[in-house]
Design a protein that fits this description.
Order of helices and strands: HHHEEEEEHEHEHHHHHHH
Strand order of the largest sheet: 1-4-5-6-7
Strand content: 5-15%
Shape: flat
Number of helices: 12
Largest sheet: 5 strands, mixed
Radius of gyration: 26 Å
Number of strands: 7
Structural class: alpha/beta
């Protein structure tokens, strides 16, 4: 997976334990989150060169203690940030390879030994593409056709838990009321400046209510600045140091983008109307391009292009 500033922004978010906790508690199965002692979170993130895919990939790895039937043990949370534009159907194979590389890393660094055994891992894939995730979620499901029963026990199994941001509605994200759910809301609002403005307002309110307001404000502000830069928003990013303290400045700039968006929408609508008028005149009259251009409010070249398109 190619590294970009989008991945890096999320990697920074998940370098803070409270955001890892919000991810697991808010978006992973409750029966798993309920076993975890988040006070024991420990960061193990690192970049690994993988010979199979010949790339450096971005991942986030934490360990946390879980209590199960009176026994306390450590589980590794392996979070893969998947922000490519297309769904990768090889994800089960990729993840199995990444997990194997991570286990190898634990052995080489003496975190454990082969005699002691390998610790359990909870693999998570965080995806924010516009297309809904469609790749299989277990490497076994890629073995086709399904082998006869006597061979099934010998096939590989590794399932990952998928968090597809785009599947969550605004109502679902609002109900969670965490800074991370606010970030997901901003991500999902990328289709318009107006939706983005509303999502930013929501995340600011969440930050203001957070007991660690100043710390969370700094973290989310850095992420928002990266996000707005990626979207090409001209909102004076160099002057944006705090979503809370600079909220009026940000709100004013976003409002200007909303007005511009609405104006461009109206202009686009008017242009479509002019083109429709020209098409009707081309189809129903013998007028030349100059006359049609004067009536429809288009240039002669635009009418000529429309006429050529109609003929073909």
């Amino acid at each position: 997976m190619a590294t970009n500033h989008h991945d890096t922004g999320y990697k920074e978010l998940f370098s803070h334990p409270e955001f890892v906790q919000q991810l697991v508690e808010g978006f992973a199965p409750s029966e798993i989150a309920g076993l975890m002692d988040f006070n024991t979170l420990k960061n193990h993130s690192g970049n690994y060169i993988t010979p199979l895919f010949e790339e450096k990939f971005e991942d986030v790895v934490w360990s946390v203690e879980v209590n199960w039937e009176g026994i306390t043990q450590r589980v590794f949370l392996y979070i893969l940030l998947e922000f490519q534009s297309k769904v990768d159907s090889t994800m089960p194979l990729r993840l199995m390879h990444y997990v194997a590389c991570f286990y190898d890393h634990l052995l080489k660094t003496r975190e454990t030994t082969a005699r002691q055994g390998l610790p359990p891992i909870f693999p998570m894939v965080l995806y924010n593409g516009s297309k809904r995730w469609s790749a299989r979620q277990d490497i076994y499901e890629m073995v086709q056709p399904e082998p006869p029963e006597f061979l099934r026990a010998y096939q590989p199994h590794l399932r990952y838990y998928l968090i597809d941001e785009g599947r969550y509605t605004d109502e679902e994200l609002i109900s969670k009321q965490t800074p991370l759910s606010g970030v997901f809301g901003v991500e999902n609002a990328g289709h318009s400046w107006e939706a983005l403005q509303q999502a930013v307002d929501r995340v600011v309110k969440i930050i203001e209510a957070d007991p660690s307001k100043e710390r969370v404000d700094k973290i989310i502000t850095r992420w928002i600045k990266r996000h707005l830069s990626r979207l090409g928003a001209e909102v004076g990013l160099e002057r944006l140091n705090s979503l809370v303290e600079d909220r009026d400045m940000l709100a004013e700039n976003l409002e200007n983008l909303v007005k511009k968006e609405r104006l461009e929408g109206r202009q686009e609508g008017r242009q479509e109307g002019r083109q429709e008028t020209a098409r009707n005149l081309i189809n129903r009259t013998e007028m030349n391009d100059q006359m049609i251009a004067e009536i429809a409010g288009l240039t002669i070249d635009e009418v000529s292009q429309l006429r050529s398109a109609i003929k073909h």
